[in-house]
Amino acid sequence: MATSATETERKYEAPxxxxxxxxxxxxxxxxxxxxxxxxxTYFDTDDYRLARAGVTLRRRVxxxxxxxxxxxxxxxxxxxxxxxxxxxxxxxxxxxxxxxxRAHTRGxxxxxxxxxxxxxxxxxxxxxxxxxxxxVVDDVVTAQTMGSSTRTTSWREIEVxxxxxxxxxxxxxxxHLGDAGIHRSSSASKLSQVIxxxxxxxxxxxxxxxAGDVVLAYLHEQRAALQNQDPRVRRSEDDAVHQMRxxxxxxxxxxxxxxxxxDRDATRTLTDxxxxxxxxxxxxxxxxxxxxxxxxxLHALPxxxxxxDVAARLTRHxxxxxxxxxxxxxxxxxxxxxxALLNSIDTLLTDPPLTPLAAGRAKDVLPKLVExxxxxxxxxxxxxxxxxDSDTPLHEARKAAKRLRYSAEVAEPALGKHATALRKRAKExxxxxxxxxxxxxxxxxxxxxxxxxxxxxxxGLLYGQEVELAxxxxxxxxxxxxxxxxxxx
Length: 489
Fold this sequence. Notes:
Blueprint: E1 3-13, H1 24-27, E2 29-44, H2 49-52, E3 56-61, E4 67-73, E5 78-84, H3 95-98, H4 102-105, E6 111-126, E7 132-145, E8 152-162, H5 167-179, E9 183-184, H6 190-195, H7 211-234, H8 240-257, H9 268-300, H10 310-333, H11 336-350, H12 362-385, H13 391-415, H14 417-450, H15 456-485
Antiparallel strand pairs: 1-5, 1-8, 1-9, 2-3, 2-6, 3-4, 4-5, 6-7, 7-8
Helix pairs in contact: 7-8, 7-11, 7-12, 8-9, 8-13, 9-10, 9-11, 12-13, 13-14, 14-15
């Protein structure tokens, strides 16, 4: 199994005759330089899907961490790096790593695309306690593309990787490098520099953007979020299923709410498939939510009220179900249906079916569409408050609150503080109704857990708490809805 770590680093272009600044001025304690040679072979699809997504997969020999490395995007200046041993294979990356890039490869094969040799000098910047705050490396690089045609190039670059220090230290090092004539690299990685392929750009939105630009920028963000969470779901990382499911729901809500900007008829099949994926992920997520809910409620009880081995009962109930749900989620992520969904998203963003309304200014077009989502929520809440058996109507209201929240979120970069305020109020309503729905789902499970078991008393107490919670949320809804009514996009 591959091991994982998060690296935060910045890369700089260095003229061949540039001298590094005095690093002791930054932290006071500097060790080095340590010099060694590295040789790495990079793998990608023939159309560089990994590189375009900001992902690198390589086999490196030499240095303290030789082996197979997979680097995945993890925020500004940061990437999650997974390591696997070198093994005997040279031209076939380990399955532990290739399985984590299937959201990009989608059945296409991986092959060597570049070979990069590096002569590296490394300095470690430490504090008085011996902690390594950062590393600075000076690389002289010789790179060759691989395939039907090859070319060779060479350059010098500086890398600064954060250790136990904070981002302010990176800024300080950058300032010293800038004073020495060394500036940020235009390439995100050595691979992108040699093959000449940059990461796909992220659309930028301003208050002067068109409605189409704003909606498409949001859809781009959700595609990136979905693909970034894919390997985390496969590795069962904390909160990964939830975040991937949220990305699918955000994209689906945006396509539904702004169907007059991105033609709704052209996206119905895609939204149906997004619903399918959210449903597959939902089984795993719902089990996780319930288990956590019950564990927290149990922990809050006085010890004398937790009769029998309640914790073990929860484990016996949830562990096999969660394991099966995870297997089902991963199986879905390996299915051709999922790959077709990702292809459909790519097609949508490459050639978007925009309507004439999309060319209008966002600040003129989007408020009316957000307001439509708001009217939808108002109607759902009115129905729920007028119904005796309100569980299902309140659940529908929750889904409408979520759509309003995401609609305001889409428009927020263009509409500013009014959309922000509306989004926050919609989230409050969604959270309140989410607590109610979780209570509705929890009660039959608690009945099952407590039936014919020596823990029945304790599970009965938890059942009563869920009933009380549902009553409280129902009572609190009108006041929160009233606050929401005061906000407009």
